Amino acid sequence: MELAKTHTEIRVAGGKLPPIPLPTNCPGCGVALDSDVLRKHGYVCDCGHHFRLGADAWIALVADRGSWKERWGDVRSHDLLNWKVPKPYQATIDQLTEEGLNEAVRTGTCTLGGRTIWLATFDFRFVGGTLSIVAGERLARGMEQAAASGLPYVLIAASGGARMQEGVLALMQLAKVNAAVGRLHAAGVAYFSVLTDPTFGGTAASLALLADINIAEPGAAIGFTGPRVIKQATYADLPPGFQSAEFQLAHGQVDMVVPRTELRRLLAHLLEMYP
Question: What CATH number should be reported for the domain holding residue 148?
Answer without folding.
Answer: 3.90.226.10
